[in-house]
Amino acid sequence: MIRHIVLFKIKDEYKSELPQLVKAFYGMKGKIEGMLDLEAGQDILHSERSYDLALITVFDSRATFDAYQTHPVHLPVKKRMHEVRETSVACDFEF
């Protein structure tokens, strides 16, 4: 299995959209074959080192994770995140 974790810093002008961005993440849940789980949320601490949003997904294999990258359900979410993010970091690992 693959766990995919992404943290996003959102541009100031889009921070009012944080709840809608979380909702968009959850809109993918159950719609992508091989995605076993999805969790997303907005930061609650707002510390200096905090990121604004987190997305954690679990895939049953590397192949389904790779397919997710171009899945039609994922593409509009990915496009929007590229528009609103200031920066992001990711970690992907097998377990």
Structure report:
- This protein has 95 residues and is an alpha+beta fold.
- The chain has a single domain, classed as Alpha-Beta Plaits, CATH 3.30.70.
- The chain contains three helices and four strands.
What's the helix and strand layout?
Elements: E1 2-10, H1 18-26, E2 35-42, E3 53-59, H2 62-68, H3 74-84, E4 85-94
Antiparallel strand pairs: 1-3, 1-4, 2-3
Instruction: Strand order, main sheet: write it out.
Output: 2-3-1-4
Question: According to CATH, what is the class?
Answer: Alpha Beta
Content-based structural category: alpha+beta
Please give the radius of gyration in angstroms.
13 Å
Q: What's the total number of strands?
A: 4
Task: Kindly state the percentage of residues in helix.
Answer: 25-40%
The tally of structural domains comes to 1
Short description:
The protein is of the alpha+beta class and about 100 residues long. Helices cover about 30% and strands about 35% of the residues.
Structural key phrases:
alpha+beta; globular; 28% helix
